[in-house]
Write a structure and sequence with these properties.
This protein is an alpha/beta fold. About 60% of the residues lie in helices and about 10% in strands. It has a five-stranded parallel sheet with strand order 2-3-1-4-5, sandwiched between helices. Helix 2 crosses helix 3, helix 4 runs parallel beside helix 5 and helix 6 packs across helix 7. It is globular, with a radius of gyration of 16 Å. The N and C termini lie close together (about 10 Å). The structure holds adenosine monophosphate (AMP). Adenosine monophosphate (AMP) binds next to helix 2 and helix 3.
Length: about 180
């Protein structure tokens, strides 16, 4: 089973992806985690990406599509994958579709965790205190939300048109959301 998790920053994509990974032997593929690893390793890609990440902007589509292509080609996907944080633009979604076609894979479900903006800000500021992520500050959060509305909502609509989308209330407690996800799969 191959799943995409969509939703605004702080909607719980990472948390739910980790739960699914354990319960269903799926591989979580988090582009945010992959980029943070590149930054921590001080790679050329990491240095380039960091500028965009700390400004709350998106890293270029070609870079992200290349990163996912490498990961998918490596195989080792257990019983399937959970994409968390990708695709974030329609161009990335199209790139993903082409890659999956070549690998003879399909997306089975797109789970959209919907959360109101005020809750996003509140959750991310709380996460800043706990995890100390550099991009969880008020200014960058606002920018990430704006980028999300402009570039990622069209991805939600794109999958809706393909009848793959399942909308869930990401504002609920972690257990409630994961129970809903379990029921839906
Ligand atoms: P995340 O941990 O998913 O919130 O990602 C943190 C940051 O990494 C984002 O604000 C972007 O700057 C960058 N990023 C992660 N995934 C993508 C993607 N699919 N496309 C472009 N930029 C991304």
């Amino acid at each position: 089973m191959n799943i995409i998790l969509l939703g605004p920053p702080g909607c719980g994509k990472g948390t739910q992806a980790k739960l699914l990974e354990r319960e269903r032997n799926l591989q979580q593929i988090s582009t945010g985690d992959m980029l943070r690893q590149e930054v921590a390793d001080g790679t050329e890609l990491g240095q380039q990406a960091q500028k965009f990440m700390s400004a709350g902007q998106l890293v270029a589509d070609e870079v992200m599509i290349g990163m996912i292509q490498n990961r998918l080609q490596r195989g080792d996907l257990g019983s399937g994958f959970i994409l968390d944080g990708f695709p974030r633009t329609v161009e990335q979604a199209q790139g993903l579709g082409a890659m999956l076609g070549e690998l003879d894979l399909t997306v089975d479900k797109v789970l959209y965790l919907k959360v109101p903006k005020e809750m996003v800000v509140e959750r991310l500021l709380k996460r800043a205190e706990i995890e100390g992520r550099a991009d969880d500050n008020q200014e960058t959060i606002e920018k990430r939300m704006e980028v999300y509305l402009q570039q990622t909502i069209p991805v939600v609509e794109w999958y809706q048109q393909q009848s793959l989308l399942l909308e869930l209330d990401g504002g609920k407690a972690i257990d409630e959301v994961s129970a809903k996800i379990r029921d839906s799969l």
